[in-house]
Design a protein that fits this description.
Helix content: 55-70%
Distance between the termini: 46 Å
Shape: globular
Order of helices and strands: HHHHHHHHHH
Largest sheet: none
Strand content: under 5%
Radius of gyration: 17 Å
Oligomer: single chain
Length: 211
């Protein structure tokens, strides 16, 4: 197993120059989210033997594309990393290419598998599959982006998102065999398959987030 801490000078650069940029994003893509992704990515890097510095940088940059249109944030994020000359202090051109592609490949709705181990790691780490986190982020996103919707419309949007993304027929895919996400996804699907339980979770969180 490899260590799961990145180089101190890289960490200092990321924490002072990169992570503060997440303060401008919505609550589903804020500093708390990227910190969780970094932590899970580092654990997966240690588990798989991937380069720890590369994984750390990819995870830190993965959602910077949220500064532009959400639909292409993975492409924008890859470009942001690839054009950040400061990273060449730590990484070769080939490493930068792999890292750019990993960010491009991290999106849950991608139609193909990530092109490298690094893409699979960040895609897996980006999956906030803890039921409470999934439900809360979905409610937060609905309130932030569709404030005109009433509670029943928000519920409809919430329920459809759960079905389309996380159900047994949903588009989400896991890329690291044996990862903790397998168990979490099973727990989440059990709730989705119980309409009454799913509505109860929505009502509780909606009340907390809208007051």
């Amino acid at each position: 197993m490899k260590r799961n801490t990145a180089s101190l000078d890289l960490v200092e650069f990321v924490e002072t120059q990169i992570l503060p940029r997440y303060a401008q994003f919505d609550r589903a893509h804020n500093l708390e989210h990227v910190t969780r992704v970094i932590r899970r990515a580092l654990d997966l890097a240690a588990h798989t033997g991937a380069d720890i510095n590369m994984v750390y940088a990819i995870a830190a940059y993965h959602d910077l594309g949220m500064s532009g249109p959400r639909a292409v944030h993975h492409i924008t994020g890859g470009r942001i990393l690839a054009t950040d000359a400061r990273l060449r202090r730590w990484f070769s051109e080939e490493q930068m290419k792999v890292m750019k592609e990993a960010i491009e490949d991290h999106r849950a709705s991608a139609s193909r598998a990530p092109r490298s181990l690094y893409g699979r790691i960040v895609a897996e780490a980006d999956r906030d599959i803890v039921p409470e986190v999934v439900f809360r982020r979905t409610v937060q996103y609905g309130l932030a982006n569709y404030p005109e919707l009433g509670v029943e419309q928000q519920w409809q949007r919430f329920r459809e998102h759960m079905e389309e993304k996380y159900s047994a027929h949903g588009y989400i895919r896991l890329w690291i065999p044996g990862s903790p996400n397998e168990k979490k996804l099973k727990e989440l699907r059990n709730i989705i398959e119980s309409p009454a339980e799913l509505r109860s979770q929505f009502d509780r969180i909606y009340q907390e987030e809208s007051t």
